[in-house]
């Protein structure tokens, strides 16, 4: 339930969550982002990840290469799975990335990327 469950987007390297994560990129960068849907969650479920303002290619799921490459701005991250995406940063600004389930988005499964021109 909302009152006893908190959904978070956490940077594994720093331990920071939500808007405390300091994601930055420059226009022209191409960066790989690894999305890990923790199998240790108390309520494992899939999460539709959405990134505003940029486009990306899903390159692998659980280290298995994706053979059907296409530009997209969302990807479903199944429970316990790891998805690697390759993001092309082409739009400067502050852009949200979040789970597209509103309840999770409103919790802390949200962050932003600052893209500098
Ligand atoms: Cu979610």
Describe the model.
The chain is mainly beta and 117 residues long. It has one domain: Immunoglobulin-like (Sandwich), CATH 2.60.40.420. Helices cover 4% and strands 44% of the residues. The chain is built from one helix and ten strands, in the order E-E-E-E-E-E-E-E-E-H-E. The chain has one helix spanning 102-106; strands spanning 23-26, 30-36, 47-51, 55-61, 64-65, 71-72, 74-77, 82-88, 93-99, 110-116. The strands form two sheets. A five-stranded mixed β-sheet has the order 1-10-9-3-7. Strands 2, 4, 5, 6 and 8 form a five-stranded antiparallel β-sheet that branches.
Total count of strands: 10
Q: Which spans have pLDDT < 50 for at least 5 consecutive residues?
A: none
CATH topology: Immunoglobulin-like
Q: What is the H/E string? A: EEEEEEEEEHE
Q: What descriptive keywords fit this protein?
A:
five-stranded mixed sheet, 4% helix, globular, five-stranded antiparallel sheet, binds copper (II) ion, 117 residues, mainly beta, 10 strands, Immunoglobulin-like
Short description:
4% of the residues lie in helices and 44% in strands.
Task: Outline the fold blueprint.
Layout: E1 23-26, E2 30-36, E3 47-51, E4 55-61, E5 64-65, E6 71-72, E7 74-77, E8 82-88, E9 93-99, H1 102-106, E10 110-116
Parallel strand pairs: 1-10
Antiparallel strand pairs: 2-8, 3-7, 3-9, 4-5, 4-6, 4-8, 9-10
């Amino acid at each position: 339930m909302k009152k006893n469950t908190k959904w978070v987007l956490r940077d594994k390297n720093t331990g920071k969550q939500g808007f405390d994560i300091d994601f930055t990129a420059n226009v022209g960068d191409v960066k790989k982002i690894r999305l890990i849907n923790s199998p240790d969650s108390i309520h494992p479920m899939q999460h539709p990840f959405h990134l505003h303002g940029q486009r990306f290619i899903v390159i692998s799921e659980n280290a298995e290469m994706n053979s059907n490459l296409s530009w997209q701005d969302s990807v479903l991250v199944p429970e316990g799975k790891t998805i690697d995406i390759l993001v092309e940063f082409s739009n400067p600004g502050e852009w949200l990335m979040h789970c597209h389930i509103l309840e999770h988005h409103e919790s802390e499964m949200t962050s932003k990327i600052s893209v500098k021109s």
